[in-house]
Write a structure and sequence with these properties.
Blueprint (H helix, E strand, L loop, with lengths): L1 H16 L3 E4 L5 E4 L7 E2 L2 H9 L5 E5 L5 E4 L15 E4 L1 H11 L1
Antiparallel strand pairs: 1-2, 1-3, 2-5, 4-5, 4-6
Length: 104
Amino acid sequence: MASNKIINIKNIAVNQKMKKKLFKNKNGDVHFGVNAPKNFVPADKKYAKEALAKLAGKKLWRCSVCSDLHLGTKPPKECPTCHTVDVYVEINKKEFETVLNTLI
C-alpha cells in the first residue's frame, strides 16, 4: 500500500512539473506555480536558488491546496493557481527545496 502512495505522489509531481513555472517580482520574492501573482515576471531556477540562499527575513510558504510555493515576507492572500483564499502554510527550507527540485 505504501508503494502505491509513493507512485501516486510521483505521478502528481510529473503532471505538475509540466505546468508550473518560476516567477519573481522587483522585491526579490519568488513564486512557483501555474500562474503568477500580480506584478511577477518569469524567473529561472538559478534566480530561485540564489533567493533561497539569502532569505534576509523572508519566509517560505506552500499552498495547502495546489502546492504552489512562495518565497516572500508574506504569501499571496489568494493563490494565483487555485484561487483559494488564506491557504498558504509556512514551511521549512528543506521542504521548499524538495518540492522545487522535484517539480523543476
